[in-house]
Amino acid sequence: MGYPYKTILCPLDFDDNSMAAxxxxxxxxxxxxxxxxxxxxxxxxxMLADQGVAAGVDEAAGQEAARRxxxxxxxxxxxxxxxxxxxxxxxxxxxxxxxAFARERGADLIVLAxxxxxxxxxxxxxxxxxxxxxxxxxxxLTLHFAPPAQAEAAKPANAAKPAARSKKAPAARR
Length: 174
Hints:
With 174 residues, the protein is of the alpha/beta class. The protein is built from 7 helices and 5 strands.
């Protein structure tokens, strides 16, 4: 484990943030000649598993996730060495699954998106990224991408704009 990175893990949940993080992971993998491991962890709710409903649903969801990962590799990662992986676990086990997978593969770097949930969502759902950062045995690159409208709204109203350049040459000083 170490720099230059040879094994990069990029957990994906297929949202815009994780796809943007994938673009960064791809660039790092190309620059360093690394293998990029795409991991989709399918969270299941314990109450569904208790009812016996989860087995068939999860198998179909796992196949759909694998299909989506293959499509991503075909469309976005053609010049990158990649491997795709899916896991099905209880919601509470998602961070542990990512960390265990990183250890199993000897990941040199984990690249993942953050979602910046509100305090209430964070309390109930926890933060996968936070748990991974706190417990990973390798460096973790976390990325958050705001939608364009949100990024524009975050700019201060009185932000300085670059001064227009004059086409005239400056007057000679005496």
